[in-house]
Amino acid sequence: MALIVKKFGGTSVGTVDKIKNVGERVKATLEKGNDVVVVLSAMSGDTNRLIGLANEASSRALGTPAYDMILSSGEQVSIGLLALALSEMGIEATPMLGWQVPIVTDSMNCSARISEIKTEGILGELKKGRVVIVAGFQGVDPEGHITTLGRGGSDTTAVAIAAAIKADLCEIYTDVDGVFTTDPSICKEARKIEKISYDEMLEMASLGAKVLQTRSVEFAKKYDVPLMVRSSFSDREGTLVCKEDKEMEKVAVSGITYNKNEAKISVVRVPDRPGIAAMLFKPLTEKGINVDMIVQNISHAGHTDMTFTVLKEDYPRAFDIVKEIADDIEAENVDGNTDIAKISIVGAGMRSHAGVASLMFETLSGNGVNIQMISTSEIKVSCIIDETQTEKAVEVLHKAFELGKNEVKEEVGI
Amino acid sequence: MALIVKKFGGTSVGTVDKIKNVGERVKATLEKGNDVVVVLSAMSGDTNRLIGLANEASSRALGTPAYDMILSSGEQVSIGLLALALSEMGIEATPMLGWQVPIVTDSMNCSARISEIKTEGILGELKKGRVVIVAGFQGVDPEGHITTLGRGGSDTTAVAIAAAIKADLCEIYTDVDGVFTTDPSICKEARKIEKISYDEMLEMASLGAKVLQTRSVEFAKKYDVPLMVRSSFSDREGTLVCKEDKEMEKVAVSGITYNKNEAKISVVRVPDRPGIAAMLFKPLTEKGINVDMIVQNISHAGHTDMTFTVLKEDYPRAFDIVKEIADDIEAENVDGNTDIAKISIVGAGMRSHAGVASLMFETLSGNGVNIQMISTSEIKVSCIIDETQTEKAVEVLHKAFELGKNEVKEEVGI
Asked: Chain B residues contacting A, CB < 8 Å?
């Protein structure tokens, strides 16, 4: 007997038949003696239809209260339909909109942050033996206006509800079986991970594994909500995202990710003076350009090189801005390259395992992959390589760290 | 400078372009120095789509809270879109859902009755110089569940809001130019009525003029809200529905209506005992069959005939029920006829004009139309005639009471 939050995305509720399937899953969980809260997105297609209408009505619709009012009607339909489908199966359910829970947020339309979730309503309905169906993605601000949480908002709703009602588990249903050791589409040996820590998942998510939104993982970590990522189209167990435990430390590397969406810019032979980095990056930030990896090495003869990566779509703008600053700070030259990829190994076990980074470097160089930049954090090592070598790099690293389906996992211990 | 409530139905907001037209009308009213509250229905088509989804999810969807939650998402979209369209035109507007106003109702899902409208929110926004856009058709019950008002609900919302905020006028935009002296599709001479009393409008509405829902007219009468029925596709003045005044009394007959949707049933030679009528009509009411006209004449030799009309769709059921009772109450026979029409003349002036009914009877008989039944109220006379003579009857009565376009209206005074 547990309290379980189950979240289903837009494709899982895309038709009434699929909504009935969601009903069957809810029923199965109830029959095992659990209490269930369901969080739903809008039916796939509905959100795009509503966005289209809003943009047709005004060219400045995004970010307005009216836009959020329109968009939030999508989940209103899907949760009502699931309540009807469950009632048809003899299961009593209470659909609740953001303002009915209430899920209180700030007033930032289209990207509101949750400030409070009142739980009496949900807990009261559960106590009556009913299933509670909460509209994902939406909330209400202190003035009673509808808000939406932005991209991945339904995941955030699910995790926040789970945290607030102290659920035993929050299941995120998606269209893949879970989190994989690497992208199965480029590495046949990719294996589903059974258990991964929040921090590893955060590195995996922000590095390119598109299964869970970073924000919902941060939320889960903060409130210690165990997350299960699993497929809505199969009964297979998914990947459990939870607090780090002893077992996880035994594995040096949990997964390998790659990202082909970045470009690099190098400012060559900058005089090594205090304040140079700030002069370079402040204007980029002000123009809304996100800088990812930054590498600066020791200086020679009073000069140093500064290299960083930005999103490919921001590259032309970023290059022009940097070019202008380069003259002011008396740099010799500005170089750029868009044909790069970032490849990373992620693992909480790295902390206690020596030699993880060297095995990565050795494996890449041993296979003819040149490393252009290196950056590390406590639980990941990232290298910038030539874009054309991405697939090869993933494959050889996956093998070197013994992540494959048919390998027995053991300590890497190099 | 007046406070005006404008209500637009589903066809008037069926596309974003039509919603922009509604915006233009709002702008024109504002530019004359008025304050404006707009009440909208859902976009035409949207309601049917939502009903379809709900019925696909459950065969017993109607009347449930989930059904109302789903349906009420329709106006959520249309009011949001109008707010966006107005903002694009430089006009600030606040869209408000039923629960945001709030429009408090009882908990009868799908046919809720309004119990209270809190006006602070609407008046506060108006004071800020904003247009307020209220979602029609929906409310919220005391427990915070969304309800809907049933058929014609948006008209009711508009009139109720107008009453609550003491608006100077409530304009109901529809797809016709106003209320006509009779159906223009069967009588070329039909003329738009400039002014009509609530009571006349109620008789017109319930007798078959499909312009305004009876419930909203009753509401308008109760709270003395002047209603203007007008076209959303032209700038012509519509029909003003208001309190009876001296001018109206000068006109004996304001309009002629007909209804082909009824059938009649006669119970022949019933022993004239107390309680017979109750024995006859109670079982019909209990089976949900509405009885309209009832005629019982004086009795002969202890026996009388009892005739009444029901909706054609209820006729077979009603006939069977009455047949069964006829034996119990020792009636000689039960007769029925579905090929009938009810034709009525309506006018507040009848009270002060003699001879209105006789002119009706004379006109019909003079033109070979046989009258099968007669029923009168204070401001109307209805006759049951053969269905095939409907058009002819309308035409000759319209002429006899000088309702036509080219006639000078004067007292009938017969």
From this structure: 16, 19-20, 50, 53-54, 56-61, 64-67, 69-70, 72-74, 76-77, 79-85, 87-88, 93, 95, 97, 99-100, 144-146
A28 plus A155 within the same structural domain: yes
Residues in chain B: 414
* pLDDT at residue A213 is higher than 90: no
Contact at CB, B87 and A60, closer than 8 angstroms = yes
Burial class, B260, CB count within 10 angstroms (exposed 0-12 / middle 13-18 / buried 19+): middle
Helices A46-57 and A73-88: crossing angle in degrees, nearest 10, is 150
CA distance to partner chain A, nearest, from residue B52 (Å): 10
Looking at the fold, whether A397 and A251 belong to one and the same domain comes out as yes
pLDDT higher than threshold 60 for residue B140: yes
Q: State the helix-helix crossing angle for A214-223 and A153-164, rounded to 10 degrees.
A: 10
In a domain, A226, yes or no: no
Last-in-domain residue among A139, A154, A174: A174
Q: What is the reported pLDDT for B266?
A: 92
CATH code of residue A137: 3.40.1160.10
Q: CB of A73 within 8 A of CB of A50?
A: yes
Check A95 against B57: CB less than 8 A apart.
Answer: no
With helix as H, strand as E and coil as C, how does B59-117 read?
Answer: CCCCCCHHHHHHHCHHHHHHHHHHHHHHHHCCCCEEEECCCCCCEEECCCCCCCCEEEE
**Distance in angstroms (rounded) separating the CA atoms of residues A396 and A401:** 9
Q: Is the peptide bond before A102 cis (omega within 30 degrees of 0)?
A: yes
> Looking at the domain assignment, is residue B251 inside a domain?
no
Please report the pLDDT score of residue B198 as a whole number.
Answer: 94
Place of tokens 């005939």: B305
Torsion of Cα atoms, B248 then B249 then B252 then B257, to 10°? 40
Q: How many of the other CB atoms lie within 10 Å of CB of A399?
A: 15
Q: Find, in chain A, the residue whose alpha carbon is nearest to that of B49.
A: A77
Considering only the beta carbons, identify the residue of B50, B58, B79 that sits closest to A88: B58
H helix runs in B139-250, sequence order: 153-164, 198-207, 214-223, 246-250
pLDDT above 50: residue A366: yes
Looking at residue B405, what is its pLDDT? 66
Q: What pLDDT, on the 0 to 100 scale, is given for residue A378?
A: 87
Amino acid at A285: T
The range of the structural domain enclosing residue A348 comes to 246-414
CB within 8 Å: A64 and B87: yes
Closest residue by Cα to residue B398 from B193, B209, B253: B253
Note whether A262 and A169 are same-domain residues.
no
Give domain status of residue A181, yes or no. no
Domain assignment present for residue A9? The answer is yes
Are residues B394 and B360 in contact, defined by beta-carbon separation less than 8 angstroms? no
For residue B87, the chain A residues in CB contact (below 8 A) are 58, 60, 64, 66
What interface predicted TM-score (ipTM) does this complex get?
A: 0.81
> Residue B16: closest CA among chain A residues belongs to which residue?
A57
Pair (A146, A257) in one structural domain: no
Examine the domain organization and report whether A250 and A399 are in the same domain: yes
Residues 6+ apart with CB under 8 A from A286: none
Q: Domain count of chain A?
A: 2
Interface test with A, best of B53, B87, B120 (most A CBs within 10 A): B53
Domain ends where: A121, A152, A174? A174
**pTM assigned to the model:** 0.83
CA distance B14 to chain A (A): 12
pLDDT at A389 over 50: yes
- We report the CATH number of the domain holding residue A264 as 3.30.2130.10
Are the Cβ atoms of B56 and A95 closer than 8 angstroms? no
Quick count: other Cβ atoms within 10 Å of Cβ B173?
23
A46 and A170 part of one domain: yes
Lookup result for tokens 């900058």: A270
